[in-house]
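Kindly inspect both lines:
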Amino acid sequence: SLNCVEWSLLPPATPEMVAQAEKVKGRFQGDPSFEYELTDLSTEDLERLLEDGKEPYIKEEARLVATIDQIDRAVGIIPRGAFVKTPLGSVHENRSFEGLSLTEAKKLSSYFHFTEPVNLKNKTLLEKADLDPSTDFLDNLEGDIPQGKGS
């Protein structure tokens, strides 16, 4: 919103937006049209931008979209069993899911990242043997190590 009265949806994040936003440090300005100069670009990236007719800048709106997308990817989780994967590969909400038991709710392995799996593809066949393909098709939180500005 530019006037805090009329609101519109943000566009979806593109890989280019995310890559550019990662090069910007510091606080947001509060002005969606503010342009951040991309100073840490490689020569190849700079040439590619100029060839495409783009300037080495990213607007605050695009940076905000990319930041929200990255936060969503990092923190979006679902409980095990809330969604199921059919043998044909489509994913659906599990209408019969009534929640986790108290015992299961206390385990990190009972929660999954709600994004494309990364670690699941790296598991050995022996590790995959214990998984149920209809419910265990995403990365669980068991092996997560918090990222950020620690200690």
Remarks:
- The first strand starts at residue 35 and ends at 37.
- Residues 77-143 form one domain.
- Strands lie at 35-37, 57-59, 77-79, 83-85, 91-93, 111-113.
- The chain is about 25% helix and 10% strand.
